[in-house]
Amino acid sequence: MLSGPERVVVVRGPRFSGKTTLLGQWLSANSPPGGSAVGIIDPAPDLTGDRYWQSVVSTLRSTQGPGDRTAPEVESPREPADPPGETYREVRRLVRAWTGPLTLVLDDLHLAGDPETFVRDLLRQAPPAGIRVLVTTRTAMQWRGPAAVPADSVIVTPVDLLLTDPELAAVAEFAGVNALNRAPLSVIAAETGRVAGLVGVGVAALAAPSSARGDPTHRIRNEIDRVIVGVLAGDPELVSYRGDIFRTAAATPLTSSAAAVVIDGGVEGEPTVVDRLAAFERHGLTVRIPEAPEPTWTYPDPVRGSILRMAATESPDVLRDARLALSKHWLQCGRPHTAFVHAIDAEHWGRVLEILRDHWRTLYTTNFLQMDGDLRRIPADVLESEPLFDTLRRMHSQFSAPKDSPAPAPAIAASSDEPDDAERLMRMLSLRMDGQFEAAAAECGPLSRLRVPDLDSSTQAERDGPAFVFLHLGLSLILVGRIDDATQMLRRAHRLGAGSFVERDAAGKLTLANALLGYPADADSWWDEERRHPQLPPDSELVVRPAGMIGAALARLDRLDIDSAIGLITDLGAPADREELWGFALYVYGQIALSTGTAADGLRYVEHHMRRYPGMCDHGAVVGPLLDAVRADLHLALGRSDESAELVGNSSHPLTATVRARTRLYEGDHEGALDIVRHYYGDLRCTQRDSVELSLVGAAASMGISAREEAVQHLERAVTKSALTGLVRPFTTLPRGTMARLANLGPELPVSARETGTGAPSSPHAATALTGREHAILRSLETGESVTAIADRHFVSVNTVKTQLRAVYRKLGVRSRSTAVDEARRLGLL
């Protein structure tokens, strides 16, 4: 970003974010293109106003001298705070008179005043050869007025400055922390917030010889506390604001109205509060959120945590009163979850129960992901005091419990003869998490008729509840295989949940739904939509991310982008203990194994993880037939037709129809394969992928009974549906020889001859067990050569050829030369 062509680069971040270090290291390693970098780096904190500009003037003069060229001064239009002072006028003159390109470096420009006004004015004073302005600041620029943000500018945000995982690892390794193995990187990241300066503080604490013992978290926190204590005590203005800093650190979010409640009791005027919060920002304690509708700041997490620890020690009553005032404020503003969290922070259990009692429906339908962690912070005996709250606590324990040892499902008793929507939703969630998928889906009917708020006239709070309901309706319906219905619910959730986590979650689940239905292009569109959203906190991310990753992997696999599919499934990792979509992940893993020729490994992996989830394939779970189907195909790929037939031979589920038809085809039962194809092709419960695969089996089976016209019809359907949906992988599910014969029927296949059959299961006659020499003997049989001629061609004895022929006959299950050639052709070996 610093090395780009833009005229303006603004690096914004709080204290400890590494702005000055970044700028200094960049300048030492990069020469500004076509000119020199002049200005000020790492100014002293007391270098404010004119003194700041005097330092800039001195640097400009010492670098190029006074300069002979003069240029008329360009006056700045009237703005909220025009650049004042004679010293700054001298900066203007020197900039205008500069010969050659100029890169003006202004570190900590907030010390001089309003950075935005100065940046705009300096651009107007540009010398003929041009100017670049590199600025660091703690304060957010609003780019007020008609000019808005300059087009040729780049903004480095506080988030951009946070250390990435590789950077974090490099800092820790440089300090010797990795070598000493004193703390996992996740602990360092969590306690330092990835803020560069605080990461340095944390790893230094871990690397110190005296820190060989003790908890890493406590060591990092203690060192950060020492630094923050020094900051608060080292500036007279911050000393005078100490109590206000304690109070505002309790507020999340830290809006101007929330700050007014804790600083002035909501009585004094807001401008005073805003000025105070702006002062905290200038001192680098807080970060402004520019896009917020109300003036809003935030303390970086490690700074806030340190301040709260100080407040809890020095002024516990002040801190508790601030939290209770905030709880009351947010309740009045219609944000019960924020009020609930502040009441828990205050440990005022009476207020906590009061909010739960009055707002539990809203809390659960709008903040379900957060409620799990919230309830864990409330003593169990407090929740057990009322049956409803104890039920909710136990339901969340069930939600968090591993699926291989699920917690007992709590009974969700209705409060009346006709339960309301919130009670139905709680019951549906509880049943689903208990593995009672059909019973959970039965609750979907009444909930699906929930009134959909009008997007134009409703508030976000009015939309959040229905959005959450439709999201979980969609997931419950996916889990029982009602995917078309699920798509409708998820689309509603996505539309109503705009601006909340529901919007992203619904997009991910729509990715999965469309991939399962066999619409890879639509799945890709929803995956792109899911990825435009920011990441959630780690615990929530574990719940939300799998659906989109599984769906995107399946969609890429269907387009034969196998490497991308493998990458996504690898990034996802093994199914987490509490992952509801575990079966779909295993299904995709099995399909990847088929496509990569690693059937044995794939079958072993799938069946190993299935044993972790006893009973989770029953009670209407669609992963039951899906996993049966992929395991049957994996057995076929290993030549185990008996095991395949044992898995799906007696099944009547539409999702196993394709592998049943393939099994019949590979066993030579062409009529039986056609019967399955004709029965299931029009079944609405079959996916687009199933339809293409059934059509291909139908074409191959029709060729087997010499019904060429019917074979052409089946193949035309498969090719047409492939063109409409983008499905390509089904054309790799039959042997290459079979696909080569189908290619001669006329319709052009969507894959090349090299790609066809790459993922085809093997024959149950173990054709893949033929050695290279046996394959060569088989090809010689097709030409009609005698045993003697074959022996001469391959430079072996006649007895060797006879031995190899017997092996070929045995492996193909035949007794003569002619039947061996026919069987080899049927299996695609010739």
Binned, the helix content reads 55-70%
The largest β sheet comes out as: 5 strands, parallel
Mean pLDDT: 84
Rg over CA atoms: 35 Å
Describe the structure in your own words.
The longest helix is centred in the middle third of the chain and has 21 residues, at about 540-560. The strands form two sheets. This protein has a five-stranded parallel sheet, with helices on both faces. A three-stranded antiparallel sheet has the order 6-8-7. It has 43 helices and eight strands. Strand 7 (about 285-290) and strand 8 form a beta hairpin. It starts with 7 loop residues before the first strand and ends with a helix. Helix content is about 60%, strand content about 5%. With about 850 residues, the chain is mainly alpha-helical. The relative contact order is 0.04.
Compact overview of the structure:
The protein contains 43 helices and eight strands.
What attributes characterize this protein structure?
830 residues, mainly alpha, five-stranded parallel beta sheet, three-stranded antiparallel beta sheet, 8 strands
